[in-house]
Amino acid sequence: MQWHRETGETIVYDDAPEFTNGRTLDLAGQVVQCSHGRRRVERDVDGVVTSIVDAFDGRRLNSPNDVVVASDGAIWFTDPPYGIQPDEIEGHAGVQEYGGCFVFRFVEATGELTPVITDMVRPNGLAFSPDESVLYVANTGDGQGDRDYVRAFDVVGAGVANPRELGDPSAADGFRVDVEGRIWTSWSRGPSGGVAVWAPDGTELARVDVGERTANVAFGGPDGDELYITASTSLYRLRTTTTAAPRPEPLG
Q1: Which class is 142-252 in CATH?
Q2: Cα-flanking dihedrals φ and ψ of residue 238, to 5°?
Q3: pLDDT tens for residues 59-100?
Q4: What is the largest CA-CA distance in the chain?
Q5: For residue 1, is pLDDT > 60?
Q6: What's the 3-state SS for the chain?
Q7: pTM beyond 0.85, yes or no
Q8: Within a 13 Å sphere around the CA of 52, how many CA atoms are in the beta-carbon half?
């Protein structure tokens, strides 16, 4: 769906999106998105969708879930199995061909795909701190012993180090970081959910309940101070007193 801020109009943007999930902008301002159904990371330019990466070591990806683009243009994304589970709710039934659920870094210019985190069961949302020195990654438990948590990692070159867990995740999914480095994360517990605000060390500063389960958040609006929250049946807008962390300068 596509919602127009000025008119309040909602229209169908794509009627066959193949279970598109996390989306972001690359350095040229084009949409980079994750497709559960096509099991790939792809680019959407005015409705024309092309593949960016769909395999690791000759094997298909699971179902890329969320994505961020770093200031050097590298694409970082999570690859849990939600889109290939037998119930087919979020994709099409399939198998995990490379045998894991990794967080990857992809360099388009060279085609180099590198697994940077390999020990999370279901990596989900991810985001960088404003200076890209820290990468935050949410893990959504599998209900079979694995639990929900958010880890922070120091970014070291093209990889990460020093993992540590933050806060009370409460089934954190997607999140964004503001200009002061605070983490704005979706949360869900039972039938309810909303957005929680954490300090960089994971200390909870605020929580807003929207009354239904939530999945993702993004800053927007003319001044970048509006937080948009996707939930089970609705899109919510929350005016904040901050703005999104600045994006890398566009190419050209």
Answers
A1: mainly beta
A2: -125, 120
A3: 999 999 999 999 999 999 999 999 999 888 899 999 999 999
A4: 48
A5: yes
A6: CEECCCCCCEECCCCCCCCEEEEEECCCCCEEEEECCCCEEEEEECCEEEEEECEECCEECCCCCCEEECCCCCEEEECCCHHHCCCCCCCCCCCCCCCCCCEEEEECCCCEEEEEECCCCCEEEEEECCCCCEEEEEECCCCCCCCCEEEEEEEECCEEEEEEEECCCCCCCCEEEECCCCEEEEEEECCEEEEEEECCCCCEEEEEECCCCEEEEEEECCCCCEEEEEECCCEEEEECCCCECCCCCCCC
A7: yes
A8: 29
Tokens linked to 89: 């709710």
- The fold adopted by the segment(s) 1-118 is Neuraminidase (2.120.10)
Distances (CA, A) of 222 to 135, 139, 194: 27, 32, 23
Q: For residue 95, count CB atoms less than 10 angstroms from its CB and return exposed for 0-12, middle for 13-18, buried for 19 or more.
A: exposed
Q: What is the pLDDT of residues 189-211, one digit of tens each?
A: 878 899 999 999 999 999 999 99
Residues of the chain within CATH 2.120.10.30 domain(s) are 1-118, 142-252
User: Can you give the pLDDT at residue 187?
Assistant: 86
Whole-number pLDDT of residue 252: 46
